[in-house]
Amino acid sequence: MCCFISLILYVRSGKTSIQQVLFENLPPKQTFYLETTTRIVKHTYDTVIPLEIWDCPGTITVETLGAPLSQFLTIIFVIDIRDLYNQPISKLVEFIVAAYHENPNVNIEVFVHKAEKLQEDDKIENFRQINERVTDRLLDISPDYEQMPLNFHLTSVYDHTLHEAFSRVLHKLIDSLPFLEDLLNVFCANSQSPKAFLFDIASRLYIATDASPVDSATHNLCCDYLQMLNSFGPLYKSASASSSRHRKLLPPVLSVPSLSDHDQESPGRTTPSAGASNSKQRAKDLFYPSAAALLHPSTPGTTLTYHLIMEHLALLAIMPTPVFESRRGLVEYNVVFFREGVQEIYQVEQEARSGG
Amino acid sequence: MKKKVLLMGASGSGKTSMRSLIFSNNPASMTARLGATIDVEQNHVRFLGDLILNLWDCGGQDAFMDSYLTTQRSTIFQHVGVMIYVFDVETREMNKDLEYYRDCLEGLRQYSPGAAVFLLVHKMDLVRENKPVTFGKKHKELQVASGDADITVFGTSIYDESLYKAWSSIVHTLIPNAAVLSKHLTTFAEVCSASEVILFERTTFLVIATSTSATEDIHKLDGTRYERTSELIKAFKHSCSRVREEFHCLEMELPDFTAVLDEMTRNTYVMVIAHDPSIETGALRLNIRMARRKFEQLQGDGHVL
Ligand SMILES: Nc1nc2c(ncn2[C@@H]2O[C@H](COP(=O)(O)OP(=O)(O)O)[C@@H](O)[C@H]2O)c(=O)[nH]1
Ligand SMILES: Nc1nc2c(ncn2[C@@H]2O[C@H](COP(=O)(O)OP(=O)(O)O)[C@@H](O)[C@H]2O)c(=O)[nH]1
Ligand SMILES: [Mg+2]
Ligand SMILES: [Mg+2]
């Protein structure tokens, strides 16, 4: 089964930009040149859960959607932060009501978008007003709507708010979230790490984090760090690197057949194995990419670590440099423990999905 | 040692933006807020300890240009090490630009005949289609306007790595012992069993020198890797500064290579890249630590480092 997410609402509110920046790595500035969407475009994206994202044209209505609203797990409405007027708000309310009627369990998310266009005070004020007007309008229609699971987010493609908001949207779709969070809590406690994230590598959305509150600055730094590593990856790729380098590489042991195996042609690649116990045994000999960035040399200093966990996922953690430098073995051990836990969860989900 | 660098070009062509990007670690998005430069802004930038760049960011409005070329002529054009002339690729006044440019060349010929000349066709990001063709045309036009003067032309933009490529090349001409450095880096690469070693200036992360190795042909590495690395590290340094942290060192064991980026001397950073899978980051860091004294010594011997 797939998780549908739909991006709906006005012409030029930034829907396609959001999809492209998050999942196609489009530089934010380039969104200026995107063409207007005239029909629904469906994008799939595989991470811990397979996503199907429908990018709808601004003219979409419940009738022209071409699928029952009940099919969607999440609907994201994208509204320009400057659209405080009656009409856009009415359209938003209309759609929310229709969606809720067809599927009371649907997650309704409103991205108040292009937020960076306004100064801090205006931003907060407009956000508050949009939120208030929508809520008031809904309550006018029926007091029942008080229970409606409606979430507002301030977003922009030009900063990290979009990533943070979309991550939160994603979390509601991940059934195994509590287990992943537990594993992260254990990792943090054992590695003296004040914060750790499990990131989807390509989209830089975080799948889960430990129980400590997410501080935006730390989240942004991790996002940027991941972006730098993603960019470094292909930069020093050798045309002739010894195949031994690749042979040690982690094969997508637990990946689903439908996942895109983009580097399948690399010569020394081991074939994915089926048995879980078998793959676990081999996991110890496999090569998992890792990295560390040490910040300010003055004691004690902070280190940002990166460890590949599975094909699409990486663990990013903040830890005191002395822990990383002098207790590396312990950190590595904790990573292996974490990795095995995640792989196990994934395996179970995979079986449930294909079996059920 | 002081080197005078003239930054010329029409007002709005992007001179101050590039200066702030390269030397002040400001992100490209902040340049829109820069005020217009009035007359000449002189800046001294310490580059590699002994080498001080004396940047003359010249306003570029017609009135100033006229006075640079007349009453201020000798002040502006004497003792110039490098002149950088910036052309906005989308300018509608190319002819006027070229006229001023030719006058500047003449001023240089008169007062600093040995100066190197770099021409930047800037804001290349604004060209939507067929960048190489647009650039080729401008290049030819500039060559013709320069007559027999020895010039180097780059297409640049503050939004990608091209600016780092151009500026690395510019500062390279100002470093007297680049060849010596390159030789030492090559030896160091061999000691580390590394495929490549790159030396960066500490604050700008411009490339100062690289190892030259026989294995380069085998690996066929990406041709833009040096300037891309400068850009990536600068961007990350900026991210760190936003949370009041300071970038210090990076180690990577990625699918295709192993690398360490660490301090070399007080004024430089070094990046060591190995493709041999048996090389570990710990070993590379140790090697860098051991090489530090040697490279500090080079500096003591009067080399610029
Ligand atoms: N300032 C700003 N502009 C944005 C943002 N996101 C998208 N845009 C711009 O909004 C315009 C319309 O975007 P598009 O994605 O085509 O909107 P859609 O019609 O909703 O799919 C484009 O020019 C984008 O560059 C944002 O976060 N901030
Ligand atoms: N698109 C684009 N704009 C640029 C670039 N470099 C500078 N600019 C913009 O050009 C404007 C003028 O830049 P400025 O540095 O003040 O020009 P100066 O008068 O030559 O110093 C600013 O709004 C910059 O943001 C570039 O590479 N691309
Ligand atoms: Mg669209
Ligand atoms: Mg200026």
TrEMBL record, chain A:
The organism of origin for this protein: Guyanagaster necrorhizus
Recorded GO MF terms: GTP binding; GTPase activity
Polar residues bias (residue ranges): 267-280
Annotated segments matching region Disordered: 255-280
Keyword vocabulary terms for this entry: GTP-binding, Nucleotide-binding
Role summary: GTPase involved in activation of the TORC1 signaling pathway, which promotes growth and represses autophagy in nutrient-rich conditions.
Family affiliation: Belongs to the GTR/RAG GTP-binding protein family.
Protein's GO biological process: cellular response to starvation; negative regulation of autophagy; positive regulation of TORC1 signaling
InterPro entries per record: Gtr1_RagA, P-loop_NTPase
Subunit-structure text: Component of the GSE complex.
Protein name as annotated: GTP-binding protein
A cellular component annotation (GO) from this entry: fungal-type vacuole membrane
Pfam family, one: Gtr1_RagA
Recorded superkingdom: Eukaryota
From TrEMBL, chain B:
Key words of the record: GTP-binding, Nucleotide-binding
Keyword Transmembrane carried by entry: no
Taxonomic superkingdom: Eukaryota
Listed SUPFAM superfamilies: P-loop containing nucleoside triphosphate hydrolases
InterPro entries: Gtr1_RagA, P-loop_NTPase, RagA/B
GO cellular component terms given for this protein: fungal-type vacuole membrane; Gtr1-Gtr2 GTPase complex; nucleus
GO BP annotations listed: cellular response to starvation; negative regulation of autophagy; positive regulation of TORC1 signaling
GO molecular function, one term: GTPase activity
Family matches, as PANTHER family: RAS-RELATED GTP BINDING RAG/GTR YEAST, RAS-RELATED GTP-BINDING PROTEIN
Entry similarity comment: Belongs to the GTR/RAG GTP-binding protein family.
Subunit structure: Component of the GSE complex.
Free-text function comment from the UniProt entry: GTPase involved in activation of the TORC1 signaling pathway, which promotes growth and represses autophagy in nutrient-rich conditions.
Protein name (Swiss-Prot/TrEMBL): GTP-binding protein
UniProt organism field: Guyanagaster necrorhizus
Lineage start: Eukaryota, Fungi, Dikarya, Basidiomycota, Agaricomycotina
